[in-house]
Amino acid sequence: MHRFLRAIGFSNIQSRQELESILGKIMNEPDKKKKIKLTPNNIYTEFAMEFGSQIGIAIRGLYDEKGFFYMEHYFPYCESRLITSSEDIIVNKRVDTNAFTGMCDDLRLGISMIFYLQNAVEYLELHTSDNTPHKAKLTLSGLSLKGTILLGVYHDVHMREKHNIRCQRRNRLIAKAKNGDQNAIDDLTLEDIDISAKVRNRIGEEDLYSLVETSFIPYGSESDHYSILGTIITWSVTQNTLTNETVYQMLLNCNEILITICINKADLLGSPMIGCRFKGVIWMQGHADFQKI
C-alpha cells in the first residue's frame, strides 16, 4: 500500500480489499487515460482519477496482445499549475518498473534536484534514450506525511531588494563555477565561510529558524525526498471526494523555487497562513512539458 495515499485524504484504508476497490474504480471510470505502444504486443497505459482539486491517483501497466491489463504500479499525485523551471531535464527509468525520475540542475539551489516524473507517457512518446537532456517547462509539487507551521520572517522593502541582489549575484557565480571559473568557485567558498561565521555569532542569542529563512535538503535514502522549509505564498483547502478527509494545499517559496504541496489536515501541526512557513519532508513530483520549449 502506497504510504503517501494519506497525504491526499486516504488515511483510513484498512485492507487490501479496500485499496483494490478504489483502484478498480479508477480503471473503470478514469478521468484521464493515456497509452502508448511499446512493442507490437504491449500497450503501456495510464489511468488517472481526481479525488479533489489537483489531487488524485494514477495507475500504470501493460495491455498484452489478448487485451488483459497487468498493473505495474500506482501512485498518488498532486498537480501544480505554476512553471517552476525551464532548465534542461534528464530523465532516467527506475530499475524495477516503468516509472521515471527526472533531474534538473537549478542555479537557485546549487544542487541537482531529483523528482518523480508524473507524465511518463509523454516522455515515452519522445522515443529517446535515458540521460538525454530535454528542454522542458517544469512544474513541481510534493506530498507530505507530516509538517509544521512556523512563523515567517519579516522583510521590509529595503531588505527584500538586498536579498534579491544577493540571490542574483549568487546565481551568476554558481553558473560560472559550473563552467570551471576558479574565481567564482573561490568567491562562493568565501561567501559560505562568511555566512557560517555570521550564523555562529548569532546562534547563541537567536532562534535557528530566524536565521534560516528557507531550506531545501535531500532527505533519507530516497533520491526524490527532501526536507524543506518554505514560505507560504497562498494556500487552500480541498475535500477528498471519496473519503471527505480535508487536505491542505500550499504554494511555497523555497529557495526562490515555487512548489505546490499537499498534506492531510490531520498530519499538519498548526494552521497555514500567508507569510508563515511550512517545515516538513516531501516526496517531490514533477510534470515536464516536453512539447513547449
Description:
- The chain is built from five helices and 15 strands.
- It is of the alpha+beta class and 293 residues long.
- Among the domains are: 3-140, no CATH class; 155-209, no CATH class.
- The strands form two sheets. It has a five-stranded mixed beta barrel. Strands 1-2-3-4 form a four-stranded antiparallel sheet.
- A hairpin with a 2-residue loop joins strand 2 and strand 3 (55-63).
- The longest helix has 22 residues, at 157-178.
What key phrases describe this protein's structure?
293 residues; alpha+beta; five-stranded mixed β-barrel; four-stranded antiparallel sheet; 5 helices; 15 strands; 22% helix; globular
Topology:
Layout: H1 16-28, E1 32-39, E2 42-52, E3 55-63, E4 69-78, E5 88-93, E6 100-105, E7 112-117, H2 120-124, E8 133-135, E9 137-150, H3 157-178, H4 182-202, H5 208-211, E10 215-218, E11 225-239, E12 246-254, E13 257-264, E14 268-269, E15 277-289
Parallel strand pairs: 7-15, 9-13, 9-14
Antiparallel strand pairs: 1-2, 2-3, 3-4, 5-6, 5-8, 6-7, 9-15, 10-11, 11-12, 11-15, 12-13
Helix pairs in contact: 3-4
